Structures are given as structure tokens and as C-alpha cells.
Amino acid sequence: MDSSLLYHAWGLRGYKCTRTEYKDNNIILHVEAKKRPRVCPKCGCNHLVKNGYRIRDFWGLPIGAKKVIIRMKVQRYKCKNKDCDYDQQEKIRFARGSCSYTRRFANCVISLLKDMTLKATADLLGISWDTIKDIHVRYLKNKYSPPSLKGVDCIGIDEFAVKKGYVYKTIVVDLKSGRIIYVGNGKGADALKGFWKRVKRNRIDIKLLLSGKTL
After folding, report:
1. What per-residue confidence (pLDDT) applies to 148?
2. Which among 25, 109, 149, 156 could bridge 173 via Cys, Cβ 3.0 to 4.6 Å?
3. What residues contact residue 115 under an 8 Å CB cut-off, 6+ apart?
């Protein structure tokens, strides 16, 4: 299979398909990295050798009604330099951590979930509900996780009313970047308890605080 097709269809750049297998309703693409690393990522010497491998399966974007499994030979490398203890598996660039699906597959799921339920998406793709839910939860955590407070030392605090004045929100803004770094429910000091806990936990030194109202 042409390497450019691997990239454009499934987001696999730098990999080659060594074999295509058809089993039940699945298309299994056996892939491995095109090039092996020549130098140790840790010490930089050229004494890197293969040290076994494992096979991992990932859900890839389907072809019509056929499910696609990316089956990768994940190589392990060890440095033979006696002063270096490097012994790790190669990086997998098209998937995150221990996820059993490719990044492109996850992006497709998120797009479908804008108009479909979890169950409908799982049925359409022929994937378990748990896998679809895992993708959705990871997406929500990444999108709505609290912004980093690194480098923040000048902040502005203000309150605003929503729903015709019956509900209040309190926002904290990084005055240097203009980012909203915290949104609290309600108003007054209670709405900022979570923010000040984060400030204390991350040892942030706030040097300037401007507010529309004394809190």
C-alpha cells in the first residue's frame, strides 16, 4: 500500500504497510515505522539496538461498511552504552498513550457526536459504547480543563449577571494575555474559593489585582 494513502486516509505519517489482511468484516493493515532511530534519544550515542517488540491494534477510520484495524509492530530499543539505561518502546505518533484508536478516528467520533448520541455513533462505527464514551470524556477533559496559571501575576476580577439577573458568574482574567483563566458560579468571595485554591496549590504570586467590586 502506498505510504501517502496511509497518511491521507488514516493520519499515519512515517509508516509503511507490510501486509493487508481481510478477516470477517475487518480490514487489518499491518504497519511499522519506515525508519529506525540511529542514535539514543537519551545519551546521543549510536549504540541503539532492537530489544523485542509488541503488537498493538488501533481502530482506524472505516472504509464504507468495513471496519479498519491498524495493527502495528511496536519496536523496543535499548542503548548498549554501559553508562546509559535507555530501554523504551518507540513513540506512536498517530495515537495517544494507551488509547486503542487513532487520533483521526477520535476526531471523527467527536464530529459525529455533535449531531448523534453515543449509542448511535457506536452503532454506526461498529465500535463499543465504552470506546465512544472514552473518546468523548477525553475530549471534554482536554477542552474544558482549567487553563494553566503559569506566569500569571496580574489579574482582573469582575462579576456579570446571566438569565435576566437571576444567575451570577465571576470571572478572573489574566491582564497580560487577556485570557479568562477562571469562571466561578455566583458572586462575592465564595465564587473565587476554587481559584484561590489553585493559586495556592501552584504557588502563584499575584502582584496586581484589579476588580470591578471589592471582594
Report:
1. 87
2. 156
3. none
Which candidate, 157, 172, 163, places its Cα nearest to that of 213? 157
Lay out the sheet containing 154-162: strands in order across: 180-185, 167-174, 154-162, 208-211
The amino acid that residue 118 corresponds to is L
* Helix/strand/coil percentages in the chain, nearest 5: 25, 35, 40
Identify which of 135, 85, 81, 144 has the alpha carbon closest to the alpha carbon of residue 112. 135
Coil, helix or strand at residue 140: helix
pLDDT, tens digit, for every residue of 70-100? 999 999 999 999 999 999 999 999 999 889 9
User: 185: which DSSP letter?
Assistant: E
Kindly write down the DSSP assignment for every residue of 44-106, as one continuous string.
--S-EEEEEEEEEEEEEEEETTEEEEEEEEEEEEEE--TT---EEEPP-TTS-TT-SB-HHHH
Q: Tell me the chain's radius of gyration from C-alpha atoms.
A: 24
